[in-house]
Amino acid sequence: KAALNKLGGVLVQYFGLGEVTGNITVLPPGLHDPEDGPHARIGTCGFERTGMQVAIQGEDGRELKPHETGEICVIGPGVFAG
To answer: What are residue 7's phi and psi, to 5 degrees?
Structure first.
């Protein structure tokens, strides 16, 4: 919030993993809002980049529901094979 107040709407956040060449998710400037509210996305990792699929999976490989803890699993053209 301090950075947004100081710099304005210029921040872009990207998140990735060591097994991925490039980024998995992006949070563009338009989704940064220093005010808390129903549309604020601060604290999230944004949304999937083009061609990437992200799921949180349990130990049994099933996709988990929101707020359940599991492993971040990603598939897409930038993910290393194996």
So the answer is: -100, -20
Compute CA 25 distance to the chain's CA centroid, rounded to the nearest angstrom: 4
Nearby residues of 10 by Cβ (< 8 Å), 6 or more positions away: 29
SS3 string, the chain, reads CHHHHHHCCCCCEEECCCCECCCCEEECHHHCCCCCCCCCCCCCCCEECCCCEEEEECCCCCECCCCCCCEEEEECCCECCC
Q: Where are the domains of the chain?
A: 2-75
Residue 34 has pLDDT above 80, yes or no: no
Q: What is the mean pLDDT of residues 30-50?
A: 77
Banded pLDDT at 40 (limits 50, 70, 90)? low
pTM: 0.71
